[in-house]
Write a structure and sequence with these properties.
By secondary structure, the protein is mostly beta strands. It contains 4 helices and 12 strands.
């Protein structure tokens, strides 16, 4: 199991000022709490963390903005530093014949806020940190479902700092990442285990990827505008 840690810095621009996103992507190897998955899956005992959670990705994306803060503005840009993270995910299932069951892009929002909140943001606030630690539990029948899980994360602003509902993506502020699950033969009797491969974080071409997600956003959030 890999213990590789990836660090990626992205330069973006917002409200005429430069900023930077500091991304850390690493495997979940936390033996005590599995990066908080013990709260999401309380029925999984600590003794099963390794087989259930180890190897899946854990991502942090921290915002530095503006990258140059004059002494006259020690607190930065005030309300100008309110940002939101929009994240979409797509799962493609792979069967034993390597055929693909292509998924659709969907919103990735905490279940508590998904229904009724009418907000497209996974996180919103003052220089919010994007955090995610996705996982897939082992099937009860011990069969391994191969799949490709991809996420696209976009740093956005509400143009009037939260007074309205006009969202604009920050140029340079998008990246993709994910993981694959592969079935690996264990023995001649046909037993298999699963292998988890983390897909590195990479910058997104916003003209292609953000433009490609706007239709979904406008359909799900008709009271908002997305630019």
């Amino acid at each position: 199991m890999s213990s590789k840690i990836q660090r990626l810095n992205l330069l973006f621009k917002c409200r005429g000022q430069p900023g930077e996103i500091h991304i850390t992507l690493q495997p979940n190897l936390d033996p005590a709490h599995a990066w908080g998955l013990d709260l999401i899956y309380p029925s999984i005992p600590v003794s099963s963390f390794q087989e259930q959670f180890f190897g899946f990705p854990v991502i942090h994306a921290e915002i530095e903005y503006p990258t140059f803060i004059p002494k006259s503005q020690p607190s930065g840009s005030g309300y100008g530093s309110l940002f939101g993270w929009i994240q979409v995910i797509k799962t493609t299932k792979l069967n034993v014949t390597a055929m693909k069951e292509e998924g659709e892009w969907e919103m990735d929002i905490y279940p508590s806020f998904k229904e009724g909140s009418n907000s497209p943001f996974a996180y919103w606030g003052y220089k919010p940190v994007l955090f995610d630690a996705p996982a897939r539990l082992l099937r009860e029948d011990a069969k391994v479902q191969g799949l490709k899980w991809r996420a696209q994360s976009f740093l956005c602003v509400i143009e009037d700092a939260g007074m309205g509902r006009s969202v604009r993506v920050c140029p340079g502020g998008g990246f993709g990442w994910g993981f694959d699950i592969r079935a690996v033969p264990e023995n001649k009797e046909g037993g298999v285990s699963r292998e988890i491969h983390i897909v590195d974080a990479e910058p997104l071409d916003l003209e292609i990827e953000w433009s490609g997600r706007v239709e979904l956003l406008r359909r799900l959030y008709p009271d908002w505008t997305f630019n």
